[in-house]
Design brief:
This is Mitochondrial import inner membrane translocase subunit TIM50. Keywords: Mitochondrion, Protein transport, Transit peptide, Translocation, Transport. The structure is a single chain. The chain has about 250 residues and is α/β, with parallel strands linked by helices. It folds into 2 domains: about 50 residues; about 170 residues, 3-Layer(aba) Sandwich (Rossmann fold). The protein is built from 6 helices and 10 strands. The N terminus is likely disordered.
Amino acid sequence: MERKVELDSSKKEPEAKKPDQEVVSTSQGVQQIESAGRFKCLKKMWSGFIAALCFRKKRKYVNEQAGVNLDSTSTKNTNLTVVLDLDSTLVFSTKEKCFPGQQEIKSIKYYVGIRPHCRTLLETIRPFSNIMVYSAGGPKYVNHIVELLDPEKKFFDKVLNRDSCQFVNGIYLKDLRKTGYALKRTVWIDDKLESFPFQPYNGIVIKRWIGDPEDEEILKIIKLIMQLRKENNVCSFLKKNHRKTNNNK
């Protein structure tokens, strides 16, 4: 006797996916893989960007601590830059006339004497130098002194006054990074070493002048500047000769 095999209608074979469904499924998988790849790539790029940013900040901090500013460089101008103080360096100012040769500047109510050989200094270094004034004096006072020293406006390329200083513990501090010139080719001349705490090895401390008509310190400065014009890095030279160049404070 033959048995009839009854098929359970509740158990159906899985339907085969249609071709278009397979395409959709495959496409979604590819998209997911591509999205994951792009995300991984972007994550890697972002990590690299953060690392580079951190390195740049760290390098900038280290350079600032060392007195070097990468943003304060000039590729177009390789001249030596000479930054000059005014009071007790190039001039001596008093409210009352103290010695012959002082000129009265009524607009600022000062009598001003010009240090011997000041004009010689400016004329000698002008052909190969950028010359700047960097003074802790107020804007009005500094402008009048500069006009007295350079009435024809042929010596000074820039003039910085008290507004470009930092006032700390009663002292106006000067920062050569404000000059905009390459520090390795910049030298300051001042009667106070403490005026330049950020770049101590960029400078020459000159003996304070209070009116001596026989003073010849500027002639010594001219000789040093003539040496520095040949140096690629004035900081290195001045650091090696620090005691020699700054023993006349």
